[in-house]
Amino acid sequence: MARHSNGYTALQLSLHWLIVLLVLFQLIFGEDMGRYNYYVRSGQDVAPLLTGYYLHIGVGLVILALTLFRLGLRLTVGVPSSVPGPALQVKAGEALHYLFYVLLIVTPITGLLAQYVNMRTFGEVHAANKPVFIVFILVHAAAALYHHFVLKDSTLRRMMVPGTH
Ligand code: HEM
Ligand code: HEM
Questions:
Q1: How far is CA 80 from CA 5, 39, 121, in A?
Q2: Ligand 1 contacts CB of residue 54 (under 6 A)
Q3: Is 100 close to ligand 2, i.e. is its CB under 6 Å away?
Q4: Is 82 close to ligand 2, i.e. is its CB under 6 Å away?
Q5: Nearest to residue 83, comparing CAs of 138, 13, 31, 8?
Q6: Does 37 contact ligand 1 (Cβ within 6 A)?
Q7: How far is 164 from 69, CA to CA, in rounded Å?
Q8: Cβ 73 vs Cβ 11: under 8 Å
Q9: Using one digit for the tens of pLDDT, what is the confidence trace for 59-102?
Q10: What contacts 67, CB < 8 A, 6 or more positions away?
Q11: 104 - beta bridge partners?
Q12: Per-residue b/e over 33-62, b at no fewer than 16 CB within 10 Å?
C-alpha cells in the first residue's frame, strides 16, 4: 500500500469521521435489533420497532460500503506514513488500524448472517463485536489524545486538516 507524506485527503477525513458517527449510532441503538427479533418470535406487535430495525440494517450496510470505498482509497491514493516514534508504538498503531478495518467488515457481515441465515450462531458473534469495538475505540481515542496533548505531534491534527503530515 502506498505511503506518502501528503497527509490525508478531505475525502479520507470525511469518511473517517462519518464512519465514527455511524458506528456510535449502531453501538448505542443496536439492542433495538435484538428486541425486534424477540418481539417477532414471541408474536408481539413490532410496528413501533420497525424504524429502528430498518435503520440498523441500513446504517450497517452504509458502514460496510463506505469502509470498502475507504480501503479502495487507501490502496490507490495511499495514506501518510506514520508519525515517527518508537517502533513498537508505530507498529501497534498500524496494527489497530488494520483490526478496525477487519471489525468494520466482519460486524455488518455477521449481522446479515444473523438476520438472514442463523441467529443463534451469528447473532452471538455479532453481539460479541460490541465490546471489542468499544475497547478498540477507547484505546484508539486515548492514543490520539496522548499524541496530541503529551507527545504534541501532528497525529490528531492530520486527522482534522487535509494535507497535514
Ligand atoms: C458496523 C455495523 C454494525 C454494528 C456496529 C452493529 C452493532 C450491533 C449491536 C451493538 C447490537 C446489539 C448487540 C447486543 O444486544 O448486545 C446489534 C444487534 C444486531 N444487529 Fe447489528 N450492527 C451492525 C450491522 C448490522 C447489519 C448490517 C445487520 C444486518 C441485518 C445487523 C443485524 C443485527 C441483528 C440481527 C442483531 C440482533 C442480534 C441478537 O439479538 O443476537 N447488524 N448490532
Ligand atoms: C468508531 C470509531 C473509530 C474508528 C472505526 C476509527 C478508525 C480509524 C482507522 C481505520 C484509522 C486508520 C487511518 C485510515 O485508514 O484512514 C484511523 C486513524 C485515526 N483516527 Fe480513528 N477511528 C475511530 C474513532 C476515532 C476517534 C474518536 C478519534 C479521536 C479522538 C480518532 C482519531 C484518529 C486519528 C488521529 C487517526 C490518524 C492516525 C494516523 O494517521 O497515524 N479516531 N481511525
A1: 5, 48, 39
A2: no
A3: yes
A4: yes
A5: 8
A6: yes
A7: 22
A8: yes
A9: 999 999 999 999 999 999 999 999 999 999 999 999 999 999 99
A10: 19, 101, 104, 105
A11: none
A12: beebbebeeeeeeeeebeebbeebbebbee
**Ligand 2 centroid distance, CA of 140 (Å):** 7
Please name the residue that has the C-alpha cell 501528503: 6
Kindly list the domain boundaries of the chain, sorted by start residue: 3-159
What would the grid cell of residue 32 be? Answer: 433495538
pLDDT tens, residue by residue, 102-154:
999 999 999 999 999 999 999 999 999 999 999 999 999 999 999 999 999 99
The DSSP result for 7-46, as a single string, is ---HHHHHHHHHHHHHHHHHHHHTHHHHHHHHHHHTT---
